[in-house]
Design brief:
It is a single chain. With about 290 residues, the protein is of the alpha/beta class. It has helices at about 50-55, 85-95, 110-125, 145-160, 185-195, 205-220, 245-255, 270-275, 275-290; strands spanning about 10-15, 20-25, 30-35, 60-65, 100-110, 130-135, 175, 200-205, 230-235, 260-265. Strands 1-2-4-3-5-6-9-10 form an eight-stranded mixed beta sheet, with helices on both faces. Strands 7-8 form a two-stranded antiparallel ribbon.
Length: about 290
């Protein structure tokens, strides 16, 4: 059974009063902090192996935030109202740590890397960030997952239309076609994902729309990242992300003079399969860009 060390859970109040929860490994103030944005159906606890790994080998603090509608955020689970609200949430959240840490390193895993790319394009101009890290970034999907996602969305839209349904805008009823085996080959993590009461298996119609809009926006945002040193980590057993397509996209669009790309022997959930190696890559990278 997967077990995590105890960690600090805190919250940040957004401009509209929404309470955003996050988990902290390390000190609430210091020199360096990594702030990581999670993927589509996951939440901050999925990053515990990485948070523990970073904390055990360095003085770098690690924060994993629950994005709106996810994780410990109990209001309107599975619902994203707009792409602008999603980015404002994360920009506001990161700005709130500017006085607590000397250097802020923004990171994103899976779909969280796309959201993080947009946030990075905003905050780079303000000089708030020191580096940008992407783990198994979901800018391009393998054909199998892309087809399943399209078919699922189409089927649900047809059901709504056929039965003349009018679901509440904040009611999560549309399934997300992801299975534990899409993330890792490890049976213990399959059990964790299957039994995880905070994961999202269903989202609202608005969330599907916002995901698509953020994905398009993130491709443009990559072209606006000009100076931030960047680390990109892939898993070579991916079942979701098209690694080669993402590599090409980053190389073509990002103007940063420092782009380090690494491949680990893992599935999509790099932090599940090789947390220590991932933590070593990240802490070494940060030490070199200070």
């Amino acid at each position: 059974m997967i077990q995590f060390q105890e960690t600090v859970i805190q919250s940040h109040i957004q401009s509209d009063g929404y309470k955003t929860h996050y988990r902290l490994w390390g000190q609430p103030k210091g020199d360096d902090v990594i702030i990581l944005l999670h993927g589509g159906i996951s939440h901050s606890a999925w990053q515990a192996p990485l948070g523990e790994g970073v904390n055990s080998r360095s003085q770098i603090s690690f924060i994993a935030v629950d994005r709106r509608g996810s994780g410990l955020n109990s209001v309107n689970r599975g619902h994203l109202p707009s792409k602008e609200r999603e980015i404002e949430d994360m920009v506001s959240f990161i700005r709130s740590f500017e006085s607590s840490y000397t250097r802020i390193h923004l990171a994103g895993w899976c779909f969280g890397a796309q959201v993080a790319a947009i946030v990075a394009s905003v905050l780079e101009k303000e000089g708030i960030l020191s580096s940008f890290l992407m783990i198994a970034p979901g800018f391009a999907f393998q054909e199998r997952y892309g087809d399943v996602l399209r078919l699922t969305k189409h089927a649900m839209f047809e059901v709504v239309k056929a039965f003349d349904l009018d679901p509440e805008p904040t009611h999560a009823f549309m399934p997300v076609p992801l299975q534990p085996t899409d993330f890792t080959d490890r049976a213990d993590w399959h059990e964790f994902v299957s039994n995880d009461e905070l994961r999202l298996w269903k989202v609202t119609e608005s969330t599907y729309k916002v995901w698509s809009e953020l994905a398009d926006w993130s491709h443009l945002a990559l072209s606006e990242i000009e100076k931030l040193p960047m680390l990109v980590v892939f898993g070579n057993k991916e079942r979701l992300v098209d690694n080669e397509a993402v590599k090409q996209l980053v190389q073509e669009r990002v103007k940063s003079p420092v782009i380090q790309m690494e491949m680990l022997e893992t599935g999509h959930a790099v932090q599940f399969d090789e947390p220590e190696k991932l933590a070593e890559l990240i802490t070494s990278f940060i030490a070199n860009v200070r």
